Amino acid sequence: MKVIRKRLKAQFLKAFMTYVDTKRLKQQNYPMDDLVVIKDIPYVQDGHPLHRLDILSLKDGLINVPTIINIHGGGLIYGDKELNQNFNAEFARRGFRVVSLSYRLLPTFTFDEQVKDILDALSFIHDHSQTYSLNLDEVFMTGDSAGGLLTLFAVALTRSARLRSLYNVEDPNIYIKGMGLISSMLDIEERNDIIDYAPILVLQAKSHLASDFIYEPAKLFGEVEFPPCWLSTSSEDFIRTDTLKLKQLFDQNKIKHALLDWGKGDAYRLDHVFPVTYPKYQESQKTIDAMIDFFKTL
């Protein structure tokens, strides 16, 4: 009965968050006339609607520009690439070619399968880079909230044959030059008191060899040397402590990184992942520019 309640709670949260974001995106019907957007490219040929990606670039822009691969948030349980379209458009306008992908969701699918989806997308990007004019010499990955956690796992797997064997995935042969994480999730078990991530993951992954990393993602730092990382959070971010712990891990492992930690907003709240949900805020524009400035140093 307890398990049923937890699943019902997750489904309720999924429905509520979907409603909120659908309403927000409808109000933010920003024009995209200055961009070329290639929609719904299948990166796995199985017909699943969440095995698709978009590619955004500036109309009449340069060809050989850096590539950003973006992983959306949504607590691992909801959402798709459409959540981040306005955010990704800002990077495309600043001269990047942006790949935005969807992945399958908990609790129907497992965390392991979500990680595999992202690795499959990376393999597709590698294999079709010439078709879509994707520069593989300068590839960055960005993610917000749960997308930040998935970014950490995906990047770790690109750098570790042992981890790839645990997840039963192939090497995508993509070198990630840097990461940009906004309000990233890190401590899944600490999220148990908020929306019950841990019980769902326990039910689906407790017997898996990789489960240690699911419950303690910090262990990934003992497996691989991560690329430089840019971090962002705010005092009004309800999982701000996760970003601060990530900064500590980058400090301890002597990995180049930077942190932009916003205080409280004056005219409006600077909530969890606000640069993604409200990319036109002045603070969001500064956040995006700061991330790009960091990438340019790499």
3D structure, described in words:
By secondary structure, the chain is an alpha/beta fold. The protein is globular and about 45 Å long. It has helices spanning 2-27, 85-93, 111-127, 146-158, 161-167, 192-195, 197-205, 211-215, 240-252, 274-277, 282-296, and strands at 35-42, 52-58, 67-71, 97-101, 139-144, 178-182, 229-234, 257-262. The chain has eleven helices and eight strands. Strand 3, helix 2 (85-93) and strand 4 (97-101) form a beta-alpha-beta unit. The protein has a single domain (2-296), classed as Rossmann fold (3-Layer(aba) Sandwich). Helix 3 packs across helix 4 (146-158). An eight-stranded mixed beta sheet has the order 1-2-4-3-5-6-7-8, with helices on both faces. The mean pLDDT is 91.
Low-pLDDT stretches are none
Amount of beta strand: 15-25%
SSE arrangement, N to C: HEEEHEHEHHEHHHEHEHH
Number of strands: 8
Number of domains: 1
CATH class: Alpha Beta
Strand order of the largest sheet: 1-2-4-3-5-6-7-8
List the helices and strands and how they pair.
Layout: H1 2-27, E1 35-42, E2 52-58, E3 67-71, H2 85-93, E4 97-101, H3 111-127, E5 139-144, H4 146-158, H5 161-167, E6 178-182, H6 192-195, H7 197-205, H8 211-215, E7 229-234, H9 240-252, E8 257-262, H10 274-277, H11 282-296
Helix pairs in contact: 3-4
